Amino acid sequence: MCYNTSMDLTTYKSMLADAERDVLRLETELADAQSVARYCRRRVQELEQMTLPLGSIRPPDITLKLAGMTVWEAARAVLIREKRAMRVKEIAQALVESGDFKDSGSLPITILTAMRRREEVFTKVDRGLFALRNGEHSKTQRPAS
Predict the structure, then answer these.
(1) How many CB atoms lie within 10 A of CB 24?
(2) Measured between alpha carbons, how far is 67 from 100 in angstroms, rounded to an integer?
(3) Of 26, 69, 86, 88, which has the fewest CB atoms closer than 10 Å, so is most exposed?
(4) Please, which pLDDT band fits residue 97 given cuts at 50, 70 and 90?
(5) What is the pTM of this model?
(6) Per-residue confidence (pLDDT) for residue 135, from 0 to 100
(7) Which helix (H) or strand (E) holds 15?
(8) In the chain, where are the structural domains located?
(9) Read out DSSP for 57-98?
(10) pLDDT tens digits along 41-90
(11) How far apart are CA 119 and CA 134, in angstroms?
């Protein structure tokens, strides 16, 4: 068999040059990814060492037991506990933190719908701000922005 060695040599040289360029590009990408990973690792360590603001810590005896409640009953319980008007997202976060509700992404909409259907229980005091209608807590308190 007779091979055209000059064509094979040219082809292999071209393939080698392409492969070496790919290796350099991948090494650069790897170095960039490692740099990002180091930065993120440092930030995680810094944030884990930070202390929580005192206002965000709740005493252990103030916990919600919401198992078996409907969404509107649980929202009412949150508003009673917090003793202030709240935004729907804050109520949803409190329900998820209780462990009895899962955040499926539609929980705020479900809460809003339930609150609107129970106008005898809830009232809208400002844009996006809801409170209990019967005054079980002060409606004048606004959530911290």
Answers:
(1) 10
(2) 5
(3) 26
(4) confident
(5) 0.49
(6) 65
(7) helix 5-49
(8) 1-50, 56-132
(9) PPPTT-----TT--HHHHHHHHHHHHTS-EEHHHHHHHHHHH
(10) 888 777 777 655 555 544 443 445 566 788 888 889 889 988 899 999 99
(11) 11
Distance CA 100, CA 98 (A): 6
Write the single-letter amino acid at 44: V
Tell me how crowded residue 71 is: count the other CB atoms within 10 A of its CB.
20
Sheet holding 122-126, edge to edge: 86-87, 129-132, 122-126
Q: Give, for 131, the enclosing helix (H) or strand (E).
A: strand 129-132
pLDDT, tens only, 109-145: 888 888 888 888 898 888 889 999 876 554 444 444 4
